[in-house]
Amino acid sequence: MAFPEAQQEVAEAYENVAFFRRHMDGAGLRPHDLRTPADFRRLPPTSKADYRRNFPAGVLVEGATLGDPFVFRSQSSGTTGERLVTIATTVDLAERMTTTSAVNPGLEAVFSGARAQRVARYAAPNCSDVECATPFTTPESRTLFDGTRVLPVAHDLLTTPSVMVDQAVAEIVEYEPHWLYTDPMHLAFLARHLRGRGIAPPPVGGIVLTYNLVTHVARRQVDDVFGARSAVVAEVVSMSELGWMGMECLAGFVHMNTDSFYLEFLVGDRPAAPGEIAELYVTSIGDQISPHLRYRTGDLYTLLGGECPCGHRFPRVEFQGRGAHCAARGGEIRLTPKQLDHLVGPADWLELYKLRQLDEDRFGFRYIPVGDNHVAQAKDLGDRLLAALGADAAVAVDAADYIECERSGKFLSCVSEVVA
Amino acid sequence: MTGFADGRGDIRADFPVLSRTVDGVPVVYLDSAATSLKPQPVIDAMVRYYAEVGANIHRGKHMLSEEASDAYERARQRVAESVGARGDEVVFTAGTTHGLNTVAVGLGLSADDLVLVGADSHHSHQLPWRHHARVEWIPVRADGTPDLGRYAELLRRRPAVVALTHCSNVTGRYAPIAEMAALAHEHGAVTVLDAAQSAPHRAVDIHGLGVDALAFSAHKMMGPTGIGVLVLGPGLLDRLPPAMHGGGTVDWVTTDEVVWRRPPHRFEGGTPHIAGAYGLHAAIDYLGRLGWTHLAEHDRRMGQRLLEEAERRDHLSVVAPGVGDRGGIVSVAVRGCRDLGELARILSDSYGVMCRTGHLCAQPYVDAVARGQVLRISTYAYTTEDDVTTAFKALDEAFPLLGAERGDR
After folding, report:
1. Domain spans of chain B, in order of start
2. A348, A393, B240, B292 - which has most CB atoms within 10 Å?
3. pLDDT, tens digit (0-9, with 9 covering 90-100), for B18-53
4. Which 362-381 residues of chain A touch chain B by CB within 8 A?
5. Which residue of A has its CA nearest to B259?
6. b/e map of B172-203 (b: 16 or more CB within 10 Å)?
């Protein structure tokens, strides 16, 4: 982990960024107090609210402005619906992307091999920085400043009208993107439509699955359609605030970029051991315009430990999903979204599913079945859900022909309405 | 039995109105078919909107507007989930009447088009059709069920629309909707369902029932007044133009061109009842916690109890008597009583029993079966057997004092 660089980031943030000076003074800390990783944890974590409240005056490095060259601004409503305007330099973002991509030579080759990059994005409209949720947009109006083509989709994925699905299918085939930057649930939706219409997918070199947890079911559907064209498919950990932070290697493990970030995986306020479910706190390294210190992400990970067959030195993790989305009872997590995903597995008897915790004891699991032979599997899954959630939980398992997205436009496979 | 328990004990404590007294007498609320009482979580949800959010939806870029928009759309999703529909198939209206009119106007009927309407329909499900088309009545038999033989005959006249009522607000009788809708579709008719009295008590699934549209009101299902739901099935969703034009219904407007928004937004012109959506969401959650199976069982049990009590009394004549699929509603004519309004006032002021009298917005039917007025007792999840006992005891005590004319029914 890049601890000396993190100390340097703190020193520069204290010196040059008004919010962090106030933040540390408020905690009675100076940069030289943070000599060890344990000292570092005395620095109070920062949250979205800090960056939102202090934007832009408090979080920009002194002398910088929003109009500076190479400044990239992104508006995010986030998976939580908690909105935030984020700012970074394209130089920092490119560096993080390059460093992160080193774990996957296959994707690295795709990125470097294409001179005039044609990138297509298919994700929730809220994540797309451009209006793409009506049938009245044109390819030109959905092309971002960097040339990325955003494909049209409705805010509530499964209600996307045929005319917009037709647009997306036609454009992805016609545009022939070098690589796709997509939400796995959205791409799986498109894959199902491509398959249903008997249309061959375009010969994309690579597929980045980000924005959302990659379920086995979605991955199966994406691999079935796009993998047949030898596309390199990889899960990427990214945040609008900070850019790319981790990537799946060719051996199938996600590695976190510990050169561009100082990462803390904590259980409470202590470092997690491999196998424990921990929350990620991020400190940027060398951020030129808006550093982040001990940024509490709300995302849960499990450190896997040991060496990866791919040989890369970056630590291996498994993304468990957001803490707020876990099924929990009595304040204790019973199922993270990833644990639910393991429970369901690739499940070729269903197309899509969602577990929603309604209150402390009630859960609803809905799924869209494939074919007619799903009742026995659903019952078996219901028994396993009950075992995981507690025998006294009420778990309703129902087949459906529609399942809603969250308001953020993301299709989350596991959500909770219980306020922690 | 004290009341409907949800695992947390008696739910009656959740309803502030039930703690009221009238001149020291506890309120016995038996007018739930008119509107239901609201549990505290529904009241809290609406207060939360006004106290903590307050902003308009889908308009501004500020945080409060976004929060309100999110909550409004989450309410839509929750409704969709509860009726087996997609989010875009759920339109928020001002209530059942608004929803039914939206369909009646949008279908673009002419005076030559035929609409079949149940004889026991609520005015809200007959007047819009009478205004826009030619109406034939589906007769109702003495036991309150539709005359399916006559219905089949009427369908041969190729009606454009069949206006169905799931549960009569007069008799509490449920109609065999899935069967009637399937028959209507065989004859090419659009089916529109008034689910105002059924949606509060039973899980209403648009696909299970097989209708093209259904409408209900939040206020009859523990939610707020002023908001309702119109569910449009695939057959109508894109076919129906907006009945009301204005802000929020369009994607694009020039001086000579208009592009309507996708459903459901094209049907929701103007600022909607945002607090109502908060309340409706809370109401559906509350009902979900009670459990739809338990709600339906309670409703049937109450319906049976009301029927038994009413049929046991010579001075009461039940509208649509007999066993069958019925909910917690009974309407009676009272022998010799020419002014049921006076009886209702006595029940209210002297006994704390709140119930409804009159023609119940189904005047042609009530005129035909009960000389234009009935006394209606209707229940909901918070109603207890003791409430029913109290109401009939009060009736027993009050009836002899009315000086009703013997033999006059």
Report:
1. 11-30+291-402, 43-288
2. B240
3. 999 988 899 999 999 999 999 999 999 999 999 999
4. 362
5. A136
6. bbbbebeebbebbbeeebbbbbbbbbbbbbbb
Distance CA(A117)–CA(A111), nearest Å, equals 8
Please list every residue in chain A whose beta carbon sits closer than 8 Å to the beta carbon of residue B85: 402
**pLDDT (tens digit per residue) in B353-385:** 999 999 999 999 999 999 889 999 999 999 999
pLDDT in tens, A205-256: 899 999 999 999 999 999 999 876 678 999 999 998 899 999 999 999 999 9
Q: Which residue, among A402, A415, A417, would best test binding to B if mutated, counting the most B CBs under 10 Å from its CB?
A: A402
Taking the CA of residue B86 and the nearest CA in chain A, the distance in Å comes to 6
* Residue entry with tokens 């296959």: A106
Q: Right CATH number for B11-30+291-402 from 3.40.1550.10, 3.90.1150.10, 3.40.1170.60, 3.30.390.50?
A: 3.90.1150.10
Query: Are A98 and A209 in the same domain?
Result: yes
In a mutational test of the A interface, the residue from B58, B72, B81 whose CB has the highest number of chain A CBs within 10 Å is: B81
B74, A407: Cβ pair inside 8 Å?
yes
What lies within 8 Å, CB to CB, of B139 at 6+ separation is B119, B146, B147, B150
In which domain, by residue range, is A257 found?
A: 3-324
Residue B361 annotated in active site: yes
Residue B84 to residue A400, Cβ atoms within 8 A? yes
